[in-house]
Structures are given as structure tokens and as C-alpha cells.
Amino acid sequence: MLTGCTLMTPREELPLRKVTAQELTALLHHREAAIQSVKGLFSAKVRGGLIPIASRVEGAVYYRRPNALRLRGFTPLGSELFDFVQADDLYKLRLPLEGKTYAGHRSDMKDVGRLARFSQLSVWALGSVLGTNSVARDEAVKVIEEKGRYRLDVYAPTAEGTGSSRPPIRRLWFDRRLLVVQEDWLGSSGEVEATIQYDDFRPLEEGSVRAQAVGDEDIRLFRPFKISLEDGRGQGSVQVIFHEMHHNQAIRVEDLGQLS
Fold it and tell me: What sign does the dihedral 195-30-24-162 (CA atoms) show?
């Protein structure tokens, strides 16, 4: 007979502490504001024909707030596959191996075919790295506890100031550390456009700012070094592994490319 012992509930079974949608929204904004620039090197595996040019890509990303983004992709042997530059609604996509260049408004990327889809998915996948997946001030939010995680539903703004009567446009899952570990992008009818999993979180370099406190904890700023994306339309998947990631360092104008 055992006496004098107490059975402990496993940590994963402990109830979640209360966190409001406003606290999660503020945390996302704080993480976004902490990033002024990002540059990094990564490897990507692309499956399912999302891009016709390669299944393995070595890449580089450059980002500077508020909206300058450049993605470059190379073969494992170093030949340039693509060069994608974006700012606001403008883009430029250069395909050196095909000798083609596309430019214009992102809303008119239909002429680029599958590469338009790949470009959009790539931008979504980098949201947690760049801090661009925060909630806009006119979007409505609701938090739900689900399977030991917090799910933040994000709704498009409406004339009445709330979108809760319509399907959400995004869902973000936070773990107990309040890190975004999954994000779903949804279509107008609630269908899943893409599901993104974030893993291998690492803290920013020493000297970076720390996030504001939520509850009784001071949450450090982390970024995922592994990203897995599944296309909701069944067109394939992308897995990204970062080898290097540097924040808030000077980025040259030529690193960001040119739209003209």
C-alpha cells in the first residue's frame, strides 16, 4: 500500500491558463514590431508539382519593414531558378532558366500559372518568420481552447465592424508557450487554402528586444527554423529548413532587388 505520495497530473493535461484574444493579438503585434529586417538562407523540398522547375531548392530571403520582400531560389549546383520581388501589391518574378520575366500587380498574377500559387504560398509560409502574420486593426478575433492549445480565429472586417457571423479568413494555433505552431489560411467559404506547421523555434540573437509579458510570464521572442506547408487545393507541399537567420541587420538596396 502506497502512502504519503501525490499523483501529479502530466503537464500536457493541466488546464490552459486564461488568455484573451486581445492579449494574443497584442503579442503578435509586438513580435511584428520587433522585426525591422530579416535575411536568411534556407533549403526547401517541393512536392506535388507546385513549381515545374525543381523539387529541391536552395534559397535566400531578404525582408525589410514594412513591405519589401525578396526570395531567390537556386539549384543545389548554384544555378538561379527564380528571383521574386514584392512590395505592396506590386511584384516582379524573373525565371533565368526560362528567360522570362513577369511583373505587375499581384492580383493579376494569373499569367504566371502555378508559379503564382507557389509565390503566394511562400509569402504565407514566411509569415511567422517575418512577423507579418499579425492581426490587422480592423479584423475581428475570437480565441478558443482546443486540444491543449489556443486557437485564434481571425475574421475579415465588415461594415458593422465584426466578421464573426462569417467564416474566419485565418486560424492561428498557439501552444502553451504562446508560440504560433500552426496557421490555416481559409477561403471565402471556409475551405482550407493552406496549412502551415512551425517547428524548431529558436530565440533571436542576444540584444534583441523581449516580448511584453502575458500573464505572469515574460515571453522571449522566438522564430521557427522549420516550416511545413500543405496546399489545401491538393497541389503539393513545401518544407523549408533555415540554415541561417539574421534579424535587424542592415540590408543593402541591391539585396532587395528592383520592381522596375
Answer: negative
